[in-house]
Amino acid sequence: MKEILFMEPVFKSMIWGGVRLRTEFDYELPSDHTGECWAISAHPNGDCIIKNGPYKGKSLSWLWENNRHLFGNRSEQSFPLLIKIIDAKQDLSIQVHPDDVYANLSKPGALGKTECWYILDCDQDAEIIIGHSAKDKDELRSMIEKERWLELIRSRPIKKGDFFQIRPGTVHAIKAGTLLLETQQNSDITYRLYDYDRLDKGKPRQLHIKESIDVINCPHEDAPIGVNTIKHDSSEIKELIKDKYYTVQKIKVYGELNINQNKDFMNISVIEGEGEIDSTKLSKGDHFILPYEYGMFRLKGEMSLIVSFIDN
Ligand code: ZN
Question: Are residues 208 and 299 in the same domain?
Fold first, then answer.
């Protein structure tokens, strides 16, 4: 089908959110502490509506249920990926996600979560938390019991354009002053390890210490991310990660670029600039899916895109 499926994003107010989704992307926000834009999502907690064409007004989950051919008749129970833009005005809690096996044991049918982050923008001294310093589970348990958080947690500086892959079992947190695009498995199982002893409506938020210790990988190892760039005249396609759950690319268009959509489906987000796809106008903040057998498409203009698809 030669029809682009444009998404109507869903917004989430969060105690740690801000207004950059309005100031940077011109979205209409529900509050001045909006933390997340669910840009391409069929999750029941935020199911995007199709904005155009014959499926206008239908949700992405409805489309997955009733028109699976648009997604190459894939066999997953629900649309397998979830694309978010996150505006962290304050620190998020420190967390970890299970893998598919542990998730399924704790909740039959549930999936684990692998996610990755592309840093759209950040404060000059911004940091992110990935990993920890414990050499094995015993040391991890003991450091948690003794609340030696600062020694345990591993922070690192970040800058615009950085990319991180967060595998299941990786301790991680987004910190204040970070705007990023997240590509993740469509799953929502999160174990909160530490929340800086903050109070939410007078009470600390629930922690999941036992589950966290169960799933945290010891010792921590960074996920490899071999960045592979292909040049096309003045445009370029950068492969940020190729994983069994997703392949993510950053495409920079200068002038014209022709690409073949030969995957089951392809998610695309415009993160900078403007232009067009096959004569349809595009601008920063647009998110869409190119369905199965879309074939060759032409990008034109000056813009940056984040693209994701599944390569198996
Ligand atoms: Zn996470």
Answer: no
How remote is the CA of residue 199 from the centroid of ligand 1, in Å?
20
Residues in the chain with pLDDT < 50? Answer: none
- Domain of residue 80 covers 5-215
Q: What is the CATH number for 303?
A: 2.60.120.10
Q: What is the pTM of this model?
A: 0.96
Q: What is the pLDDT of residues 282-311, one digit of tens each?
A: 999 999 999 999 999 999 999 999 999 999
Spacing, Cα 258 to ligand 1 middle (Å): 34
Phi-psi region for residue 282, left (φ > 0), alpha (ψ -120 to 50) or beta? beta
Does residue 110 sit in the same domain as residue 242? Answer: no
Is 193 found in the same domain as 259?
Answer: no
